Amino acid sequence: MNTLRHRHTIAIVVFGIVYAAITMFVENSYYQLIMAVVPVWAVMGLAWNLFSGYSGLVSFGHAAFFGLGAYFVALAQTHWGLSPWISIPCAGVLGGLAGIVVGMPTFRLRGHYFALAMLAYPLALLYVFEWLGYQELTLPMQREAPILYMQFEDHRVYGLLALALMLGAMALTRRLERSRFGLSLLAIKQDEAAAEAAGIDARAWKLKALTLSGAMAGAAGGFYAIVLLVVTPAAVFGMLVSAQALIVTMFGGVGTVWGPVIGAVVLVPLSELLHAKLGNLVPGIQGVVYGVAIVAVILLAPEGVFWKLRDLRQSRRVPDDEPVAAAAAAPAADIARPERHRTGQEAVILEARGVSKSFGGLKAVQSVSFEVREGEILGIIGPNGAGKTTLFNLLNGFVRPDEGEVRLDGRVITGTRPDQICAAGVGRTFQVVKPFRRMTVLDNVVVGAFVHASSEADARQRAQEAVRRVGLEAESGRLAGQLSTKQLRLLELARALAGQPKLLLLDETLAGLGPQDAAEVVDVIRSLAGTGLTVVIIEHTMPAMVKLVDRFVVLDHGAVLTSGLPAAVTRDPAVIDAYLGKRWRAAHA
Amino acid sequence: MNGAQLAENFLQALTAGILTGVIYGLMCVGLSLIFGVMRVINFAQGDFMMLGMYAAWFVFGLLVPGGSGGSVFAPYIAALAAGPMVFVAGVLVHKLLVSRVTGMRGNALESEGHYAQLILTLGIALILQNGGLFVFGSQPVSISTPLSSNAWEVGPLYGELVSVFVNQGQLVSAVIAAIAVLGFVVLMNRSRLGKALRAAADNPEAALYMGIDVERAHRIAFGFGVAITGVGGGLLASSYPFQPYVGLEYVIVMYAGVVLGGLGSVSGAFFGGLTIGLVQQLSTLFLPQQLQNTAIFVVFLAIVLVRPQGLFGRAVRRA
């Protein structure tokens, strides 16, 4: 892990030295300008990546931050004589503030609506700045103190300054990437619901990401104004600005510090040189270059150049970590049901009272009441459409009940946000496993560990503990995308465990597993319950459930049909009719 | 400014708003068709509209050599002729590019397939805009017709104080746009093609099992959608000068209208577009001319923020 981290740092340093050396050797002043502009777009790409790449919300509006930064630096120098050494950091702050102002209302939107709304901000600003009379703002020459105003005879200095800005942005991204910040955003990108269930306050993290991203874009815009010396609304608020940020990143690869850098290093010089050579013959060639680049990337390598290369390299390497699962002795498929000593008088940990929820005319859950006692394994069964998953969504706060209330340790939690319910000690898994495929098993679990962790080291330790408890230690360094279905189920268990819940809600954890794999997972769940954890599990596969649970609640058409001990429930004629069917009766008569 | 003057300004802006609004409505219907059938946000819609404008301009040049005079019908024939031309362009773009990330193939892509479509159409938009700059040049052009410099005077009303001028060119354009929208609605509801398109929109998989070629339905919907917007562009072209970047302004106008009417609803899109036209023209009563589009963006943001799922959308969260 540490050597990997060092390798990345070394790569960044080497890249910086090479870039600086090339900058110093370039003599033509137009090429010197290109050397200064490439890092600006790389920083814009990094800013876009920091927000959209990690959170998965596509922004078409980063030009708003860029343009505000550029105009701030230009106006501050023209009107107040403010030095760019001060105004560029201020432009960053302004961009960050703009990120907050934009994010607060816009995060209510999802998907397409978010992307479209983001597009409207820079375009609205574009017309406002035109109306204000800033069609073309030229920065005044400062002959008295050129260095104070970042005006250098030698254009190579701009290249070096831009490089410093880019290296700073790269270092910041690197730092954030593997921290709580980056992992939380990745979790949101993968599945916002799952992230919230893992205790992540999605809105707060998205807002932080957009603030930082806006700050980076604002600083980039401010520096851009200094390099070009002319600011026009179309050049800084225009569609191409937002598009370029997105395109250099998508081209190079989303979700990595190298993506935007690769994209900028390839595409910016290409479009600039073509523009210089053919601009008179073919106006608009820059836009065509970016358009063709993004179309080609989407069609040929949607993951971007960086990931494509990495995948190619990895597939050529001989896999050195063969799965060791086969080595473990497989437990007998039909394990005996060990006795669990339960009095039925333990304290009530979770209680649902008359909970109802309708979607339109469909009554998904109808006045359901039940209680969960400390340390027990409660099974909720019922046919498809009986309202099982909706019930879980009501318990962990995804859905607000129309009527009734849910109490955790006697406290009403109805109407509380999912991440807060998670922090209060309720963990959950999902019917469909959603691992973060490009992250290692351990990193996947670390995401879940942040809920109660005081530091990153603490989170890592808790994650390791959780991985050990489900028996995935051997796989902890592997990428989640390489796991088997059973291992993925265990991974999800570990992710929920890492938040150290008192109560675990498992949604069809045994679905899609063969009898032997199911038996292994059942063993793990039983061993967890043995350590005092309370478990509520939804399931289809009746035989495995009988061996697992202490008590059943049977749902049918959204209402509780019956509840009780497994032996009693499986003999109840009403249950057999609603759920088990005649074949069960025939087989067990 | 006295009351009569105020009333006159208001009525004048209202008239202009309705006349442009009907054409915006037609353009929105095209965009809405694509989203409704394919569930794809087409970023390049404004640029196909630009193609429609230039196609109409080209046909007009053939009909009226020299660029002025000629039959009063020439600009409208040209605008309608733009439809089939843009249709062919749309079908080609769909076949070669868009179809690779949409429909059944789109479903097979990773979770980002959704955004792949959006970003692909952004790339197409950039190519069309900037390619247009090369092919058509950056000088604004317009289709001049004798009608667009004539107006009918309504009034004088209220004792000779108030009179409203209705531009003849715009009025004819608006009437044609309204007829086109009605024709489209009839086509969608009555014809076999319309039924196939609606089936493909409703449930592509089921439609596939019913023997409907969903890929083809998507291709036709895309071609049709951009062609309708292209005709709208052609109709606008006789009253507004345009250049290759014109699409960008209208893409927000169109999305504002479509979102206002509820994404995917065709009649909603028409009235959404009409409303946007009214907002744009009425805003000139109290805002400077340059901020017309800012007014639209603000209305657009207000709509999506107040009704995050659109006016007819449903808020469903799934775990």
Largest interface: A-B, 58 and 54 residues
Classified by CATH, the class of the largest domain in chain A is Alpha Beta
- Could you tell me the number of beta strands of chain A? 12
Query: Could you spell the SSE succession of chain B in H and E letters?
Result: HHHHHEEHHHHHHH
Distance, first to last CA of chain A: 58 Å
- The oligomeric status of these chains comes to heterodimer
Into which percentage range does the β-strand content of chain B fall? under 5%
Under CATH, the homologous superfamily of the largest domain in chain A reads P-loop containing nucleotide triphosphate hydrolases
Main sheet overview of chain B: 2 strands, antiparallel
Record the strand order, biggest sheet of chain B. Answer: 1-2
Outline the structure in words.
The complex is a heterodimer of chains A (589) and B (319). By secondary structure, chain A is α/β, with parallel strands linked by helices. Chain A has 2 domains: 232 residues, no CATH class; 241 residues, Rossmann fold (3-Layer(aba) Sandwich). Chain A contains 23 helices and 12 strands. In chain A, the strands form 3 sheets. A 6-stranded mixed beta sheet of chain A has the order 8-9-10-5-11-12, sandwiched between helices. Chain A has a 4-stranded antiparallel beta sheet with strand order 4-3-6-7, covered by helices on one side. In chain A, strand 11 and strand 12 form a beta hairpin. In chain A, helix 18 packs across helix 19. About 3% of the residues of chain A have low confidence. Chain B is mostly helical and 319 residues long. Chain B has a domain of 210 residues. Helices cover 69% and strands 4% of the residues of chain B. Chain B contains 12 helices and 2 strands, in the order H-H-H-H-H-E-E-H-H-H-H-H-H-H. In chain B, strands 1-2 form a two-stranded antiparallel sheet. In chain B, helix 2 crosses helix 3, helix 2 crosses helix 10 and helix 10 crosses helix 11. The relative contact order of chain B is 0.21. The C terminus of chain B is likely disordered. The chains are: A alpha/beta (589), B mainly alpha (319). The interface between A and B is large, with 58 and 54 residues.
